[in-house]
Amino acid sequence: MAQREELLGYLFILPWIIGVLVFALGPMAASFYFSLTKYDIVTSPRFTDLANYRKAFFEDPLFWKSLGNTAYYALISVPLGLVSSFLLACLLNAQIRGMVVYRVIYYLPSIIPVVGSSVLWVWILNPRLGLLNLVLKLLGLPTQSWLGNPDLAKPSLILMSLWGIGGGMVIYLAGLQDVPVHLYEAATINGAGGWAKWRHITIPMMTPTIFYNLLMGIVGSFQVFTSAFIMTGGGPLKATYFYMLNLYHNAFRFFRMGYASALAWFLFVILMLLTLVVFSSSGRWVYYMGGVD
Question: Which domain holds residue 171?
């Protein structure tokens, strides 16, 4: 009987196992093999050992340029997105009539396809007819070439990333509504004010949610591609030439599939290391009910 139930269990998870093998582990293994070869799709792969990895580290200046641009983007956009979405969620957690409407308004931009958002922001940041420069003119401030200036191109894309904080806001809202009410009641009885409650109850109880959004933000920021591809093409002067754009160009523009596979594995290792660092440090600041993990 136990063996029959075990067999049925394996049969139920068999579609998932097949899916992982065919659509995840299989492509990963193929990618690792191609990363050790010179492969251009047209001809058969030719084994080159670690030549692609050596090329990235020692011969390709665009590897370091794209990695630096991506690190800059992640270092600013991730904390900015975390703080903005958390503060917005705290504001929208108030029990006020019509609050659902405001939540929907702030959430809607996050579900607009990135291509549509990018086209919209190209118009907003247009140096001649853009809405942002129009506002600056009305305020008597100098206008800017947001996407044409190498010093402003990355900050402009970081500004655009705030368009999608609604997704993180919804996750924070769910976490805020799970904070035990009796903690606030006990704090009120002991004379704690609003700031004290927010600092000593809300933030500690929200650290698991902050931890989750931090991980997702890091992974997402290192995979930024569509906005730069549509809005700037990596320019001006490679200022927005992000890592995924470099990988895309090598794979589908120059057909260096072996080298592009090596770049993909570099990204995998970078994200794994960052994830391990965040996990290893979480014990000092992530609080769970019943103790600190």
Answer: 52-292
Specify if 32 maps to a domain. no
At residue 293, the pLDDT reads 40
Q: Name 291's bridge partners.
A: 288
Question: Which residues of the chain register pLDDT less than 70?
Answer: 1, 289-293
Q: Do the Cβ atoms of 209 and 175 come closer than 8 Å?
A: yes
Asked if 217 and 230 count as a contact pair (C-beta separation under 8 A), the reply is: no
Quickly tell me which residue has 């692609």 as its tokens.
Answer: 52
- Residue 28 in any domain: the answer is no
Where b means 16+ CB within 10 Å and e means fewer, 185-201 reads: eebeeeebeeeebeeeb
CATH number at residue 151: 1.10.3720.10
Give me the percent of the chain exceeding a pLDDT of 70: 98
Domain count, the chain: 1
User: d(Cα 154, Cα 236) in Å, to the nearest integer?
Assistant: 10
194 within domain boundaries: yes
Measured between alpha carbons, how far is 224 from 154 in angstroms, rounded to an integer?
Answer: 12
Q: How many Cβ atoms sit within 10 Å of the Cβ of residue 28?
A: 13
For residues 252 and 261, what is the distance between their CA atoms, to the nearest angstrom? 12
Question: Can you give the pLDDT at residue 7?
Answer: 87
> What's the pLDDT score for residue 96?
85
Would you say residue 30 lies in a domain?
Answer: no
> pLDDT digit string (tens) for 233-247?
999 999 999 999 999
CB–CB of 221/73 below 8 Å? yes
Query: What's the confidence (pLDDT) of residue 290?
Result: 57
